[in-house]
Amino acid sequence: NGAVASGGTGAARSNGAAGQSSENSKLTTVLDAVELTLNDKKIKNLDNFSNAAQLVVDGIMIPLLPEASESGKNQANQGTNGGTAFTRKFNHTPKSDEKDTQAGTAENGNPAASNTAGDANGKTKTYEVEVCCSNLNYLKYGMLTRKNSKSAMQAGESSSQADAKTEQVGQSMFLQGERTDEKEIPNDQNVVYRGSWYGHIANATSWSGNA
User: Fold this and answer.
1) Is 195 exposed, middle or buried (0-12, 13-18, 19+ CB in 10 A)?
2) Helix, strand or coil for residue 154?
3) What pLDDT does 97 receive?
4) pLDDT reading at 22 higher than 90
5) What is the Cα–Cα distance from 45 to 143, expressed in whole angstroms?
6) What rounded mean pLDDT belongs to the chain?
7) What is the pLDDT of residues 140-160, one digit of tens each?
8) Residue 140 forms beta bridges with which residues?
9) 105-125 core/surface letters (b: 16 or more CB in 10 A; e: else)
């Protein structure tokens, strides 16, 4: 019953691929980025501005590496005992929304007026991210869960929208990675390029593709 997305790199090539020149050669690299929703098994192209270390969803940029990573850039962060932390799980609240999660100003001295259905305070989503692999700068994949804040659910009790009353709004998987532009791969004389990748992520759902 698992959904299989074949040719994953091709799925992202139309809109989700961004090109940039490699510093070490004349080759042009392409960064594919896709999101697979678990409910309807649809693939959506993402635009992460040519940076596999950041995830851009709903117009929000989510850093996939901690600020305390060794270089502060796209480098693997260290785990316990000097080892590499291959996976990382964290919650992300947009900076612009952190102030909204604070208690609202009481209206005419009435504290009950704050964080009600008519108040915008706290009506935000938290993004729970589980991402692999910190040791690979050019590839990131994992699970993304969108959650309502507690105040949003309280406000949603008076709403007719079902997703406003629950904590978990939606869950999806994401895959983004850097590759060489197919047009730039040498194929004359005896030069042959061969490569493949395969990923398996929980719940019998798998990504597979060949390049």
Assistant:
1) exposed
2) helix
3) 52
4) no
5) 16
6) 64
7) 889 999 887 665 555 555 555
8) 176
9) eeeeeeeeebbeeebebbbbb
Q: Are 159 and 139 in contact (CB under 8 A)?
A: no
What CA–CA distance (Å, rounded) separates 171 from 177? 20
Tell me the one-letter amino acid at 48: N
Contact (CB, 8 A) for 8 and 205:
no
Amino acid at 59: G
Residue 191, helix vs strand vs coil: coil
Q: What is the pLDDT of residues 50-67, one digit of tens each?
A: 888 889 998 899 998 876
Contact 148, 125 (CB under 8 A): yes
Query: Under 8 Å CB-to-CB from 63, ≥6 apart: which residues?
Result: 53, 54, 92
Instruction: Note the pLDDT of residue 52.
Output: 86
Give me the residues paired with residue 58 across strands: none
Q: Per-residue pLDDT averaged across 122-139, rounded?
A: 78
| Tokens of residue 84, six digits | 């590499």
Mind listing the domains of the chain with CATH numbers?
Answer: 4-210 (2.40.128.240)
Helix, strand or coil, per DSSP, at residue 173: strand
Give tens-digit pLDDT for 91-105.
888 876 554 444 444
Dmax of the chain from CA atoms? 81
Find all residues with CB under 8 Å of 2, minimum gap 6, and list them. 203, 204, 205, 206
Do 164 and 122 form a contact (C-beta atoms < 8 A)?
no
